[in-house]
Amino acid sequence: MEVFQVTDKLPDSDNPVVLVIGKFDGVHKGHQHLLEQAKALCAKEEKLAIVCFTPHPLWALRKDPAYQRAITPDSAKFYWLEHYGVDKVYNILFTTKYAENSAETFIREHLRGLNLRHIVVGESFNFGKGRDSDVDLLITLCGERSVPVTEVPFVKDHAHKISSTDIRTAIADGDFATAEFLLGHPYFIEGEVIEKRGTHWLTGMDEYVIPKAGEYDVTINGEQKRIQIINADRIVLPEVKKKAKITFKPTII
């Protein structure tokens, strides 16, 4: 999978692509459904490409503390996108300046260099500056290049759409049964391990949603272990190597 870090215009490419646009925080069941629908639209020679954003727009624009941390920071997001069959990722650095771009600028200029065969978005998709930057406008603008647009309905858990907000809440509450059900895959975090006075600490957690304080059964680098979360910045581990990938199980001790 190719990953491109982007600040405005996407790099030119002759490869024909089916493009999916979204935040993709969590790469949850709803996102996976989008990817499945887009993959089904890909002809033999076409690649599945993604436009996503870092950091979350609600943190970039409003400094909403609920969105300061991610379910899937970039490394985890790219891991799952590749796992679900994505060929190209265009990860846009989302800033207040970038948010000033209109929908017209995004479609006519930022995507101009792509060989677009189809665009796929989720239900109630909005993009660009302005209240009317919705799916109807996307269809109109893409029609200028004869690029079809498909709007995919929400995936729902009973009557409610699957949302990153609900997953954030479940993770923060230590409810990994719900989180894993909504995600469609286990929740994991990765970081560097340091030792201080005989205690091993996980560092580099600033970008991750961290569960509430408590002791948790997890796997660390594939081995069954137990960790203690003191707060969002202090996680105590058993003795492990310098790097740790911690996958949470749907139980709390």
TrEMBL record:
For biological process, the GO terms are: FAD biosynthetic process; FMN biosynthetic process; riboflavin biosynthetic process
Q: Which domain of life is it from?
A: Bacteria
Which pathway does the UniProt entry assign to this protein?
Cofactor biosynthesis; FAD biosynthesis; FAD from FMN: step 1/1
InterPro entries from the UniProt entry: Cyt_trans-like, FAD_synthase, Riboflavin_kinase, Rossmann-like_a/b/a_fold
Question: What is an example of a GO molecular function annotated in this UniProt entry?
Answer: ATP binding
Q: Does the keyword ATP-binding apply?
A: yes
Write the record's keywords in alphabetical order, separated by commas. ATP-binding, FAD, Flavoprotein, FMN, Nucleotide-binding, Nucleotidyltransferase, Transferase
According to its UniProt record, the EC number is: 2.7.7.2
**Ranges for domain FAD synthetase:** 13-165
What name does this protein carry? FAD synthase
Q: Which organism is it from?
A: Listeria booriae
